[in-house]
Amino acid sequence: MTVTGPGERPFDAVLCDLDNVIRFYDLTLLTALEREAGLAEGTTTRVAYTPETDLPLLLGLIGKEEWVEAVALELGRLGDLGEPVAEPRARELATALAEAPSRADAVVVALLRRIREHMPLVLVTNAPLWVESDLESLGLTGLAHHVVSSARVGVAKPDPAIYEIAAARAGTDAERCLFVDDRTENVEAAVALGMTGVHYRGPEDLRRVWDSAAVGRPSRSPATESATSRCASRSASPTATDARTSS
After folding, report:
1. Cβ of 65: how many Cβ atoms within 10 Å?
2. Displacement of CA 198 from its chain's centroid (Å)
3. Where does 65-220 show beta strands of DSSP type E?
4. Radius of gyration of the chain from Cα atoms?
5. Residue 120's closest CA among 110, 109, 112, 132?
6. How far is CA 114 from the centre of its chain?
7. What is the pLDDT of residues 210-225, one digit of tens each?
8. DSSP-assigned letters across all residues of 67-82
9. What's the CA gap between 102 and 203, in Å, rounded?
10. What is the DSSP string of the chain?
11. Are 242 and 58 in contact (CB under 8 A)?
12. What pTM, to 2 d.p., does this model score?
């Protein structure tokens, strides 16, 4: 776990990422299809989650079918990633990604429900327009007090604006927010605004920081100090992709 922030202090709200913190995708079918097509595992996601292909979806500018078309088109001209994939295989791969089943981490959900009892909880996610129906299908509609989705607000992490929107929804200043995300650049952007950041790797990260906050002492360590220095000395990456297989 890495907890980073501009000082030891309690927080008044938790802002939490969705994908690869709460929700995880099962790409078994996609991997099998890639193998059949002679592609390296992960080729489809690498194509799909480039900003040029993914960002219009995450900003609500296109829907699922248009995204599938865009991914299939890019698979048809792979270049350095492998041999171009012809239709209908390219569409089959893109559809398998778009329709991949997902699950919620029960341990994380339970921890977040505990947090919600004590302070505002806001989900902050780079997600398409149908994220609300996804949450409903996972039984997570009431998990957070608010959901700030990039497709709904028109801006995506790590743009500072989406963090400011989330803090406003939580009803507190950025400096009083704890931000949890699996992508380093997203955490660094939050820290740059004065938030306390948790680079998420597993449920223990969330449990540890919550347990320490319960007594008013957010946990810090030598690794924390090092991460804080790094966040202060370098700017966040400009990518805006909340990749479902790596974010």
Report:
1. 10
2. 13
3. 102-104, 121-125, 146-149, 177-181, 196-199
4. 19
5. 112
6. 21
7. 887 764 444 333 333 3
8. HHHHHHHHHTT-GGGS
9. 18
10. -EEE-SSS---SEEEE--BTTTEEE--HHHHHHHHHTTPPTTHHHHHHTSHHHHHHHHTTSS-HHHHHHHHHHHHTT-GGGSSPPPTTHHHHHHHHHHT--EEE-HHHHHHHHHHHTTS-EEEEE---TTHHHHHHHTT-TTSSSEEEEHHHHT--TTSHHHHHHHHHHHTS-GGGEEEEESSHHHHHHHHHTT-EEEE-SSHHHHHHHHHHHTTT-----HHHHHHHHHHHHSPPP------TTT-
11. yes
12. 0.82
Q: How far apart are CA 53 and CA 70, in angstroms?
A: 6
Contacts of 202 (CB under 8 A, 6+ apart): 1
The structure tokens listed for 134 are 């996804």
Q: Which domains does the chain have, with CATH numbers?
A: 2-23+103-233 (3.40.50.1000), 27-98 (1.10.150)
Instruction: Say if CB 23 and CB 200 are below 8 A apart.
Output: no
pLDDT tens-digit map of 70-98:
999 999 988 655 678 998 999 999 999 99
